[in-house]
Amino acid sequence: MKPDAALRIALAGNPNSGKSTIFNALTGEHQHIGNYPGVTVERKEGWFSDAGVRVVVVDLPGTYTLAAHSEDEKVARDYLVHEHPDVVVDVVDASNLERSLYLATELIELGLPLVLVFNKSDLAEAAGYEIDIAKLSGLLGVPIVPAVATKGRGIEELRRVALETARTHRLPQRRVKYGEPLDADLDLLEKKLQGGGQGGISERWLAVKLLEGDEDTRAFLEKQRAAEILRETDHIAARLRRNYRDGPEVLIAERRYGFISGACQDAVRVSVERRHNFSDQVDAVMTHPVLGIPIFLGMMFLLFKMTFLIGDWPVTRLESLFGMLAGFIGRHWPLGEGMLKSLVLDGVIGGVGNVVVFLPNIMLLFLGISILEDSGYMARGAFVMDRLMHRMGLHGRSFIPLLIGFGCSVPAIMATRSIEGRRERLTTMFVVPLVSCSARLAVYTLIIPAFFSGRWQAPVLWVLYLIGIGFAVVLARLLRRTILRGESTEFVMELPPYRLPTLRGALFHAWRRGWYFLKKAGTLILGVSVVMWVLSAYPRPSRPQEDNPQSQGARVEQSYIGRIGHALEPVLRPMGFDWRIGTALTGAFVAKEVFIAQLGVVFAVGEYGSSAVALRRQLRDNYSPLVAVCILLFILISMPCMATVAVMRAESGSWGWALFQLGGLTLLAYGVTTVVYQVGSFLGLGT
After folding, report:
1. Protein fold of 182-274
2. Which alpha helices (DSSP H) does 87-225 contain, by range?
């Protein structure tokens, strides 16, 4: 900014927020009134001098939103978007905070230097509101000045902060989060808009306005000949309407109010009784300091119960289908006995089939999570867990990546980009693999029914997830107190209003995550299964052997993978594992689901009836429940898969962090599993 240039301050705010009073207090007698060119809307401008610099103050028409439905709103928005003032001062009615902050969320997205002045602070105090200004300023990422304009209080402080913000060009430090899938859709549009010559207008703001269906924004981009972006916007909007009943403009408004509500929950205390709406009444129970966590854990338990209870029938049918497929191919194979038949039956069907049969369990888990997310409850779960996160040295924003980790660690680690502090982000990335992903769930749904009766299956799975979360808590706390110690950053935990989720929307999210699992099974797991089959099939024995499970198991033992397993066995014995489990763990480094596929190859169950049923039978015959528990613990805690290691390296910017995570979690798993097995054996539980 040139020293002799006039600075321009734009005053924005809701009608009756006290904006005119602040305008008069700033400019005094140096003001004039006219109309904006071409419209009858009143234009008020004034000025004051600061250190010889002329500072122009423009009092924009009062508006509740930048949606530009009226002439006043259009004038206010066009000035902000096209005139680019040096700083925007948003006058907020502190006695009606949540409604008044809606405009502030839009101004944050506009990407201009912004200051909030909380006018009528005396009325807010009289109404029983105690506002932690410093905390709320940190949560919103903009300076906040409390004021009582009618009494002249706060005006000089506002003048100082506004000029400092203008001269340093300090932009808002926070971004309004809209949750999945809106954030992903907005990121896509924002990326497409970059470099499009929008005349300095924020791409984020344009992306939001496009999804809201703003006609002026659409017309502006039509002039830019951005046909591809407009088609993409229409596609996204249509999908959102199908999945949520409401259009994106409603969803965006709800998320904005959720952002505001979350910030106010943290920084505003009401010291007198007030009338509550429906969401407030439900939240009084759901986010209760004492009841909140037990309710959340109970919800998760019911979700896991549903995963097994409803999923048992489709899993059994899929098992039978793959069994019939294997039997049919085995009986009608046209090329005679040989390696190709073994590859198809043991490598492909026995490998991929043993993984795909657990798709119903995974889909049901994701369906339940989607319903909780779309209803607004999962955000409350994150709010409740925020207290626990703070004890870990993190904040509730870390809960979202951990939640995504239920699906896959790779996008979960990428989701940590929303965490501002590097120490908190690294800590969250490090502990993400301790949250059981869908690949681990596939292993659990093989092992647990093999060793535990129906009534114990959901509790065992629930406890397993809690153990992972418990280790994540302890490890995160340890990291934050040692190599990653430092202060936690402030953030806003969005609390969107409760809404009835649509079945279509929930099914869409569940299928999208399930389809990712299927693609993984059809590509990566298929490839690894074939490689593992080759290692299991060669070298071939010099003498012909009988074609039965026992002789096939002996052949596998003499194969390359069997030799690897035997080489690992002395190291694995303290955990109760033999060479067969060792070979399966070798493949699990590539993808956890390969553990199942390799067990199927080792036990040669691919061509003998229903593969998963036969494999469970083999596991029961060869191992004790104690060994089963140790397998579950090791799979839960140990080495992240290859893709997770790669994305950890990319997101942390260091191979050191990726290898530290890989080695640290594997050593932790080895230690925990060894202790459990040795103590269990000492107590006589290993028989």
Report:
1. Helix Hairpins (1.10.287)
2. 97-110, 121-126, 133-140, 155-168, 182-193, 203-212, 215-223
Distances 242 to 185, 325, 349 between C-alpha atoms, Å: 15, 37, 37
pLDDT by residue (tens digit) across 310-367? Answer: 877 887 787 778 777 777 777 777 665 667 776 776 667 666 666 677 678 778 877 8
Question: Exposed, middle or buried by CB within 10 Å (0-12, 13-18, 19+), for 209?
Answer: buried
Q: Please enumerate, as own/partner, the contacts of 536-543 that have beta carbons within 8 Å and a separation of 24 or more.
A: 536/346, 536/560, 536/561, 536/562, 536/583, 536/598, 536/601, 536/602, 537/339, 537/342, 537/343
Q: Are 547 and 337 in contact (CB under 8 A)?
A: yes
| pLDDT-based confidence at residue 275 (cuts at 50, 70, 90) | very low
Please name the fold of domain 7-168.
Rossmann fold (3.40.50)
Q: Domain ranges in the chain? A: 7-168, 182-274, 299-346+357-486
3-class state of residue 48 by DSSP: strand
For the record, the structure tokens of 156 come out as: 């000089």
Distance from the first to the final alpha carbon of the chain: 79
**Among residues 655, 666, 651, which one has the least CA distance to residue 588?**
666
Residue 536 identity (one-letter amino acid):
S
- Residues 130, 146 contacting (CB under 8 angstroms): no
Q: Which long-range contacts (CB under 8 A, 24 or more apart) does 224-231 make?
A: 224/196, 224/197, 224/198, 226/192, 226/193, 226/196, 228/192, 229/189, 229/192, 229/193, 229/196
pTM for this entry: 0.57
